[in-house]
Amino acid sequence: MVTKSKTATFFTIFFVIIFVVGFNYFHWLDFVEKPLIFIVDWSLKPINKIKLYFKKTEQPLTTDDINTLEQIKEKNQLSEINVQILTEENLELKKQLNFFVQNNFEHVGAVVLSRTVNPLATTIMIDKGNKDGIQEGDPVVVNNGILIGKIIKVEDNRSVVRLINDNNSAIGATIMNRERSIGLVEGGYGLGVRMNYIPQNEVITPGDIIISSGLSDTIPRGLVIGNIEVVDKKPNEPFQQAVITPTADLSYINLVSIIVHKK
Amino acid sequence: MLKSILRIIFYFFLIIFIFILSLYSSFLLPYPFENINLVIIFLIILLGLYGSGNIVWGAFLFGVLMDLYSELYFGIFIFSLTISFLLVYWLYYEFFTNKSVWALATMVALEVIFFRIFYIFFIVFNGTKIKLTFLFYFGWELLFTTITAFLLYFLLNKFFTKFKILK
């Protein structure tokens, strides 16, 4: 009798879940979900201010000075990259495609709402969606060109960004060394970022700057990703790897820009 | 009747509040404390207090909220959380009858394990490759959620008379 009751309960709950998932698929539950999302999103608004407050309190002295220096450092890095890219283009008579020079992209600004609830993913939720022209795969940047991730899910007024340190993130990248080595920047469960598949015979050194290669769909060339921290080279393997320090602090992201296609 | 409706409304908003709190904790707390699962702790507290099967519907609502704030397919969290709580409720009903702090902490640990087993099953189905590193994350979640639950029950038991049902 008890077993019968348990089976009945299980199947009741199972069918309710199936109905809810099905209804959600056809957007028949929007009238419930939208108010819920509105309440939660509204409650999450102070979250970034609180996080920034804690960030500031971690630095006891001259926070403004440190911020200014960081901004100058980032600007210098960007300037250096721009000069290198322009020089390279002139030398190679612009044989390669350059997504930025073609100027086919425009930006949409967005505020970070929170992290998503999936503990295995390093993903964040932002307050702009397909109503603002955002599409899956669009690159997300901070500070005028530092790549932090790309869009993986879009709703009407919200989107999910997969950060470059997520374990499922893979972005085509170029090292600004002599050979302009290309490889794949991959995340490691939120704990680090590595560049893999760098040809063994090419010379890379700690400090080299890494930019997006433009070989990944929708991500233009020239977006700064980070610097090489450690080179991992084994003579018996066809490729070498590098541990990367991302230029952006991925733990403290408040405002982002999404590079979207022009309509 | 009116009392029942008011109670349902109260728990509905309480669940939303706890969900928001869990988002704040996962976003603001440093690693590895961000892995504390407040949702499971909250639901097991309610189970320990009232022993009602309605806890499964609470888990269902939490699952809906989690799916709305996840990049995975809608339904993964609903199914994982609801079915795992159904199993834990049956265990509570059949085995954990003494309501001790130890029993409730064990239920929290079992709930985390069941929840993550279902969750892994679905994300593998979803195309995610399983790696040993996953166990590392779930290990932290299991450890910190159980310890937090244990301490919380202990304190509640100590300071609030209503919780004297916990021995």
Automatic annotation (TrEMBL), chain A:
Residue stretches spanning the membrane: 7-28
Gene Ontology biological-process entries: regulation of cell shape
InterPro entries, A to Z: Cell/Rod_1, Cell/Rod_MreC_2, MreC, MreC_beta-barrel_core
GO cellular component, one term: plasma membrane
Domain Rod shape-determining protein MreC beta-barrel core: 112-259
Cited Pfam families: MreC
Coiled coil: 69-96
Keywords: Cell shape, Coiled coil, Membrane, Transmembrane, Transmembrane helix
Family note: Belongs to the MreC family.
Protein name per the record: Cell shape-determining protein MreC
From TrEMBL, chain B:
Keywords: Membrane, Transmembrane, Transmembrane helix
Regions crossing the membrane: 6-24, 36-60, 72-92, 101-122, 134-156
Designated name of the protein: Rod shape-determining protein MreD
